[in-house]
Predict the 3D structure of the following.
Amino acid sequence: MYPKSIGTLGTAAVVALSIGTSALAEDVNIYSYRQPDLIAPLLDAFTAETGIKTNVLFLNKGLVERVAAEGANSPADVILTVDISRLSSAKEDGVTQPVDNTSINGAIPENYRDPDGHWFGLTTRGRVVYASVDRVEQDAITYEELADPKWKGKICIRSGQHVYNIGMIASVIAHLGEDKAEAWLSGVKDNLARKPAGNDRAQAKGIFAGECDLGIGNTYYVGLMKTNEKEPEQKEWAKSIKVLFPNADDRGTHVNISGMALAKHAPNKDAAIKLMEFLASPKGQEIYAEQVFEYPVDPKAKTSDIVQSFGAIKPDSLALDEIAKNRKAASVLVDKVGFNN
């Protein structure tokens, strides 16, 4: 058995560990894109309830490639990652296997799970507009409005090729079609205050500094900034913005997910399924969502007070599988309009 939380290990080390863990039916090995400290309360609750121990390998990049390279010798049982792009890639790269489980399917709405059972959403994050509390009077907006010339020189955003923005652009393609989406994206580009750069928090910082009036970011970053004791200046960034939920009066705000999948060669499959059932349960979703400042996908699960403070969200009901189908087209459009130039 290897430690509860381990960093990046050499492939040989992980393969060796798989020999020692495969016989332990009451252990489950997790390859996680989420940092171990964020999911520790969730896994502790699972162990307390079931007696099954968890082992976490945290990988901030190359997770799918790692599992693929390990092949049949991989000790991975459950994959935890974020964004529909990464979940879809795991399925497309052949490192997952389907799960048809009544308990899990009953807890996860159909639009937040793979039609073939290869991945399941657990929490959602809205791709929203951060707006200056001092310089933006309106409290409602649409994605389409971001291309309005009235915002020329006033929008900050991270790279158009980042998976978070690819998901948002893919959703616009799904709703409007490629031609209208291209015109829209060109309009947004014309309104940028600066070259796309930084992460979502950097867009809030830009608003605080007066570099822009609007920024595009995920809801959970607002929670991270509001509670950041190590870098208290981020609390000031959060105070300088208000969250606007695009298209709240029509189709709803684009949401993406954090999710789970069963690894293709899971050596501890029974324990892995038990973990997935727990993660999908209202209790599991509530613990997870509170830790990462996201929304549970199960409408019966409680949303944390901090997330509720962002305001009410009306999620776009478009199936994430439909968004995933437009990822490549979205990436092509980003380059075609020279969005990052």
Remarks:
- The chain has two domains: 5-122+256-301, 124-253+313-336.
- The chain has a mean pLDDT of 90.
- The chain is about 40% helix and 15% strand.
- The longest strand covers residues 120-132.
